[in-house]
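Let's sit down with a protein and look at its sequence and fold side by side. Once you have written the record down, we can walk along the chain together.
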Amino acid sequence: MSLKQMQLSLTPMTALANEAEYTAMLALAKSYLDDPLLLNQLADRVYAIFLEDMRCQRERVSNYGKERWL
């Protein structure tokens, strides 16, 4: 994946300014769907981010209401 593709993949869909960028994102998504290895890597990364988010939420909930020492 090129640097330009990586930067596009990190751009929120609402921030895409023009049709060319949107078309590039669609092409990138299609390449992921057409390549099982890339799709598997993407799924693994999404799962890792999900686990990290769950850990942060669990930590936040366990600390809720405890006294904080400044």
